[in-house]
Amino acid sequence: MRYRRTREAGGCFFFTVVTWHRQPILTLEPNIQRLRAAFRREMAKNSFVIDAIVILPDHLHTLWRLPEGDSDYSGRWNRIKRYFSTNIDSPAPSAIQQRKREKAVWQKRFWEHRIQDEEDWRKHMDYIHYNPVKHGLVAHPEKWPFSSFKRNIQRGWYAENWGHHEPGSIVGMNPE
Asked: Is the terminal CB of the chain with fewer CB neighbours within 10 Å at N or C?
């Protein structure tokens, strides 16, 4: 069965992207720098706005806004994942991966959700920024170094003490 993706040009989307077999490789040096470079490179070539992002050891969540008339988030993810995967250590690929000349770095697909309205946007923003706390990596969102939370405090989108308790907006959410 063919998975059907939403193709709304200029839309706002939440994504979850996971490493192969949940390998905890994303926050290791120099991998985190390589991932940041992959995002910068793609954003320079194919514009999009990142409202929020959190990078955990084995997955990441992000909220993107695409330019008007552009719906190619799949191409962007393909290029980001490919650039990151180049020249990093990874487990031996499976026979199928070898035939397709793939590395064992990322799960093949990613999960996306089209943001419906302001409330949906806020819930996903909160989910992203609270995620390191949810996974027991830090006690408060501002302590996680691989997140847009501090940038979004500076934008005035969050109070500095936000996330010291689980936000009601994310209760029951589990888009992983």
From this structure: N
Whole-structure pTM value:
0.89
Question: Rounded to an integer, what distance in angstroms lies between the CA atom of residue 136 and that of residue 152?
Answer: 21
SS (HEC) of 42-61: HHHHCCCEEEEEEECCCEEE
DSSP string, 75-114: HHHHHHHHHHHTT---PPPPHHHHHTT--SSB-S--EEEE
pLDDT digits (tens, 9 = 90+) for 104-148: 789 888 999 999 999 999 999 999 999 999 999 999 999 999 999
Q: Torsion angle of alpha carbons 166, 62, 52, 49, nearest 10°?
A: -160
**Helix, strand, or coil here: 18?**
strand
- What phi and psi, each to the nearest 5 degrees, are found at residue 98? -60, -45
Structural domains in the chain, sorted by start: 12-170 (3.30.70.1290)
Residues pairing with 113 in the sheet: 14
Q: Which amino acid is at 57?
A: P
Main-chain dihedrals φ then ψ at residue 129, nearest 5 degrees = -75, -25
